[in-house]
Amino acid sequence: MEGLKRQAEAAIREFLELFPMPRGSLFVLGGSTSEVLGERVGTRPSLEAAEAILEGLLPPLLERGVHVAVQGCEHLNRALVVERETARAYGLEEVTVFPHPKAGGALATAAFLRFQDPVMVESLKAQAHGGMDVGGVLIGMHLRPVAVPLRLSVRKLGEAVLIAAKTRPKLIGGARAVYTREEMLKRLEEYRPRLP
Questions:
Q1: Is 194 a domain residue?
Q2: Structure confidence by residue, pLDDT tens digits, 66-100
Q3: What are the backbone angles phi and psi of residue 144, rounded to the nearest 5°?
Q4: For the chain, which end, N or C, has fewer CB atoms within 10 Å of the first or last residue's CB respectively?
Q5: CATH no. for residue 68?
Q6: Is 37 inside any structural domain?
Q7: What's the domain range around 156?
Q8: What pTM was computed for the model?
Q9: HAMAP family from the entry (predicted)?
Q10: Number of domains in the chain
Q11: Does a structural domain hold residue 195?
Q12: Quick one: pLDDT at residue 129?
């Protein structure tokens, strides 16, 4: 489990290097500890594996002041564990259910036991700025549009495929729009009066 913790920590540190999430932003984690252990989703939940992953991932996020949501499994309709403060900050509706390894999954259960003031919420209302999917549990519904994959050097946690994503604001405006500050300043030069 120590190796799993180190993998998780390396993955989140690289994630934060590539996408430095600011204080107050929202990160979503979904994962299958069964997949981490090389089994099919839902067949071998492991609180030990979940704890190792959280021990690696949470400290770097919490040090930055990032809110964390941990997705439960489909038996709870992908409800998420968050701190009560996160639910308030993001206007999330609390629901009454308690995760356990066979309904909610080991990762959500471990998060619920680890968080200071945990609550379950039905949805993040597509407000997460970034996240990680461990084992193909599908976190996309919780991410803001537009999600962009982050290619990490850590490709797996245990035996589970690791997929990371960040989000960016939508590009709007059509053919005349510019999408960088540099391009905007370049275009402004065209409108400045010519000096002799």
A1: no
A2: 999 999 887 887 899 999 999 999 999 999 999 99
A3: -65, 150
A4: C
A5: 3.40.50.10360
A6: yes
A7: 2-189
A8: 0.88
A9: UPF0340
A10: 1
A11: no
A12: 98
* 80 CB-near residues (< 8 Å, 6+ apart): 28, 69, 70, 71, 72, 108, 120, 121, 123, 124, 142
> Is 173 a member of any domain?
yes
SS3 for the chain is CHHHHHHHHHHHHHHHHHCCCCCCCEEEEEECHHHHCCCCCCCCCCHHHHHHHHHHHHHHHHHCCCEEEEECCHHHCCCEEEEHHHHHHCCCCEECCCCECCEECHHHHHHHHHCCCEEEECCCCCCECEEEEECCCCCHHHECCCEEEECCCCCEECCEEEEEEEECCCCCCHHHCCCCHHHHHHHHHCCCCCCC
Report the alpha-carbon distance of residue 80 to residue 95 in Å, rounded: 10
